[in-house]
Amino acid sequence: xxxxxxxxxxxxxxxxxxxxxxxxxxxxxxxxxxxxxxxxxxxxxxxxxxxxxxxxxxxxxxxxxxxxxxxxxxxxxxxxxxxxxxxxxxxxxxxxxxxxxxxxxxxxxxxxxxxxxxxxxxxxxxxxxxxxxxxxxxxxxxxxxxxxxxxxxxxxxxxxxxxxxxxxxxxxxxxxxxxxxxxxxxx
Length: 187
Hints:
Layout: H1 10-15, E1 21-25, H2 31-39, E2 44-49, H3 52-65, E3 70-74, H4 77-80, E4 89-95, H5 113-122, E5 123-133, H6 136-147, E6 152-158, H7 166-173, E7 179-185
Parallel strand pairs: 1-2, 1-4, 2-3, 4-5
Antiparallel strand pairs: 5-7, 6-7
């Protein structure tokens, strides 16, 4: 079976320009997506959301916002990241991914070596992947996967400067430590 990959100019087809693309995986209610698109009009923001109802909710917010540089798609990010053209995304954001606690659900976890290899392939040289979570064990799993990809280098591990999403604010209200890492694709 031939490998399926989106055309190299897919972002131009989607956005009508050649601006850098930021990809958000699991935008939840779309708060980070909308804030990013408003703050950085010289970038395009594309989000992949697994929930159809949340996708519709975010699409409605985008339509009402008048933002031309943001889109949302309903789908499985772990699958879709593998068909994104190589070296076409400047930044990838994953905030509060589902840790899938039950053993029978762990196959659904996003952070795997295969996912990180696909992220690495999709990033431009110098592009970044930014992870935020309040689950220390899952953060450790993600770090092991990210650190295991030779083409990525860890830039920082800290706490986020701003709490832009309802998930982040809820975690902070409950006293959870919020973990953040940024890894960059080596040139």
